Amino acid sequence: MIEHIVPQRYQGVWRRTLLTAPEVYDDRTLVLWMQTARWHADLRIPADRPDCSGCTSLAECSRAQLLCLLKQEGFAGITTVNGTSCEWRRQMDYHPKGWRDRGEMAFSTCTRALDEYGIEADYAERWERDPASDQSGWVARSSSAAGPVLWLRSGKRFMLARPRAMDATETLAIWSRASANRASIEELRRLADFEISYGVITGDDGCILHSTLPWRELQSVVLPKNWSIDCAVGDLASGACLG
């Protein structure tokens, strides 16, 4: 039996159109949130992300490029809804900050727009549903040379999340050094080695449209063969942080 089913009106792909907070007005960052009946994935790419068109891997990125890439954000995990309160329990987190991600939610009457008001922090976000998604989400898992991959699918859209190969203690230590400008370039590469990608399904394959690894954009990917409807996906359902 599946527990904590997210109401269907939440399910699908949402694009953030506006963030407001004290001294913040942001309508330029690309923010995409895919929600199934249990799982979520979220990708956030700043509008001023550097041009990495000459790079094909993190090994080819300069220190300046890596520092700019590390301004991206994203996460994936289990979502729970209690009344009008929604919590995103992050099991993978590009930049973990140690606080709960909880929002008070208000849908428009047609459920194509959604307003989120921060509970743990002072902010407001406006979300709009992507018409190319639908409210029947699918989940899959695969393995890659870089580690385990969580896949979500909604209509003709998919997202994948593959965390960096570090435990939480090491991740936080290197983030601390990076914030103080004391991390080595190899440590910066290890931090940036975290993929969250969003794309469109074309036949049996997918094409990545947006990714935390810019050179992955417009690449074709082989989609999983075995999708499940909101089933637990191996160890990713344990609640352990994989960030």
Search tags:
disordered C terminus; Lipocalin; 243 residues; eight-stranded antiparallel beta barrel; six-stranded antiparallel sheet; mainly beta; 42% strand
Give the SSE string: EEEEHEEEEEEEEHHEEE
Number of strands: 15
CATH topology: Lipocalin
Mean pLDDT, rounded to whole units?
A: 91
State the distance separating the first and last CA atoms. 27 Å
Radius of gyration (CA) equals 17 Å
The total tally of domains equals 1
**Poorly predicted parts:** 231-243
Strand content: 35-45%
Q: What is the CATH first-level class name?
A: Mainly Beta
> Architecture, according to CATH?
Beta Barrel
Tally of contiguous helical segments: 3
Structural class: mainly beta
Sheet with the most strands: spatial strand order? 1-3-4-5-6-7-8-9
Give a quick account of the main beta sheet: strands, pairing sense, barrel closure: 8 strands, antiparallel, barrel
Binned, the helix content reads 10-25%
Large-scale geometry: globular
Q: Could you walk me through the main structural features you see in this protein, from its secondary elements to its overall organization?
A:
This protein is mainly beta and 243 residues long. Helices cover 11% and strands 42% of the residues. The strands form two sheets. An eight-stranded antiparallel barrel has the order 1-3-4-5-6-7-8-9. The protein has a six-stranded antiparallel β-sheet with strand order 10-11-12-13-14-15, with no helix packed on it. Helix 1 runs parallel beside helix 3. The chain is globular, with a radius of gyration of 17 Å. The C terminus is likely disordered.
